[in-house]
From TrEMBL:
PROSITE patterns: LAMININ_NTER (PS51117). This is LAMC3. Residues 1-124 form the Laminin N-terminal domain. Keywords: Disulfide bond, Laminin EGF-like domain. It comes from Cordylochernes scorpioides. InterPro entries: Laminin_N. Pfam families: Laminin_N.
Amino acid sequence: MRKNFEISYLRIKFRANRPQMFRVYRRVDGGLWGLYHQFGECSGASRCSEPFAKLAPQVGGSAAFSPMQDMARPPGDLGLREWTTAKDLRISLEKFNTEGKDMSDARTLKSFYFAISDIAIGAR
């Protein structure tokens, strides 16, 4: 029997270069997946941490998100308890941080990959 948790933080430590952009989705009670937080390339996204991709160190760096601290108030009509509640979390690594390198060369393209060394989730 699976249950909902109140998420206090999520920390992801990367073994390779951090992605230029990734998203964290949440699901409650087997419902639809909804965007919980986006890292990098915000473009108007309200739940976003844009500067993280530019932070040092690039290799071995980490990204953290706390739904209670990062939101002045939860989106829409959600209360804080509803906003921090999740049964499932999904991480979608979406864009390589290529550091401006030419990606048309196959050898250069093969040198980029996503690698996560640790994921920590604080919840009750």
